[in-house]
UniProtKB/TrEMBL annotation:
SMART domains: FCD, HTH_GNTR
Domain (HTH gntR-type): residue spans on this chain: 2-69
Listed PROSITE patterns: HTH_GNTR
Protein name according to UniProt: GntR family transcriptional regulator
Pfam families to which the protein is assigned, alphabetical: FCD (PF07729), GntR (PF00392)
Key words, A-Z: DNA-binding, Transcription, Transcription regulation
Organism, as annotated: Streptomyces eurythermus
UniProt key word Transcription: yes
InterPro entries per the UniProt record, alphabetical: GntR_C (IPR011711), TF_FadR/GntR_C (IPR008920), Tscrpt_reg_HTH_GntR (IPR000524), WH-like_DNA-bd_sf (IPR036388), WH_DNA-bd_sf (IPR036390)
Length: 228
C-alpha cells in the first residue's frame, strides 16, 4: 500500500520541530525513505512541500537541508501569528458551528480545572487543541492552514515559558469563546489580540545569531510547546 506523501510530510515536519534533525542538517531521500518505511517518491514530494513551508531549503552540492531561520525571520513568524489569530477569532464568531462551540467550551472547562490543579503538562496539550479548534472554526481553510503552519514553525523556533497565572490565561480563553458564541467578532478579535501579545512575551528563541541551539529543555519539542 502506497503511503500518502502528506503522511510522510507530517512525520518529517514533526521530527524537524522535535529537533530530531538539527538546523542545517542534510535530508537525503534514501535515509528518510528507510526511516519512515516508504519509497523515495513520497519523500521527494514531502520535501518539496516542506521547502514551500520554509522548513527545508535546497542547497547546491548538498541537496535538501533543514532550514536555518534567522532571528528576524523568527520574529516575523511570531508577529504574523499575533496578527492572524485575532482575524481567525473574528471570523470564527461569524462562521463557527455548534460543534466547534461544544469542543471549545469543553476545552475551556478542562483547562480551567487543570489550571486550578496546576497540571502544566495537561495545560500544554489542552491549549494547543483550543487554538487549533479556534482556527478551524474560522471557516477559511486557507487561514486555518496558515495558522497551523505558523504554530508548527513557532514550536520549532521557540521555547515557551509557562504562564505566570494559568488560571488567568484560561479565563482569557473562556472570554474569547464567550465572544465567539455571541457572534461578537470585534470583541473576539480584541481579546485574542491581547492574549496573543501576552503569550508572545513568553517565547524564547531556541537558537542564537550564530545558529547555536539554546539549551532550554531536554524534552522533545512538538505542538504542545505553544500551549498557554
Amino acid at each position: 500500500m502506497r503511503i500518502p506523501a502528506h503522511s510522510v510530510c507530517t512525520a518529517v515536519r514533526d521530527d524537524i520541530v522535535a529537533g530530531v534533525y538539527e538546523r542545517g542538517s542534510r535530508l537525503t531521500e534514501e535515509v528518510l525513505a528507510r526511516r519512515y518505511g516508504v519509497s523515495r517518491v513520497p519523500v521527494r514530494e514531502a520535501l518539496r512541500t516542506l521547502e514551500a513551508e520554509g522548513f527545508v531549503v535546497t542547497r547546491r552540492h548538498a541537496g535538501a537541508c533543514v532550514a536555518e531561520p534567522t532571528e528576524q525571520e523568527a520574529a516575523d513568524v511570531l508577529e504574523m501569528r499575533t496578527l492572524l489569530e485575532p482575524l481567525g477569532a473574528a471570523r470564527a464568531a461569524q462562521r463557527r458551528t455548534e460543534a466547534h462551540l461544544k469542543v471549545l467550551r469543553g476545552l475551556v472547562r478542562l483547562g480551567q480545572e487543570r489550571a486550578r490543579k496546576g497540571n502544566s503538562e495537561d495545560l500544554r496539550s489542552l491549549g494547543g487543541w483550543f487554538h487549533e479548534t479556534l482556527a478551524q472554526a474560522c471557516g477559511s481553510p486557507s487561514l486555518t492552514s496558515m495558522l497551523t503552519q505558523l504554530r508548527h514553525k513557532i514550536a520549532w523556533m521557540y521555547a515557551v515559558e509557562p504562564p505566570v497565572s494559568p488560571v488567568e490565561s484560561w479565563a482569557e480563553h473562556g472570554a474569547i469563546v464567550d465572544a465567539v458564541a455571541r457572534g461578537d467578532g470585534e470583541r473576539a478579535r480584541a481579546l485574542t489580540a491581547l492574549h496573543a501579545e501576552r503569550a508572545a512575551d513568553a517565547h524564547r528563541l531556541r537558537f542564537s545569531v550564530a545558529g547555536e541551539r539554546v539549551r532550554t529543555s531536554q524534552h522533545a519539542v512538538n505542538m504542545s510547546g505553544l500551549r498557554h
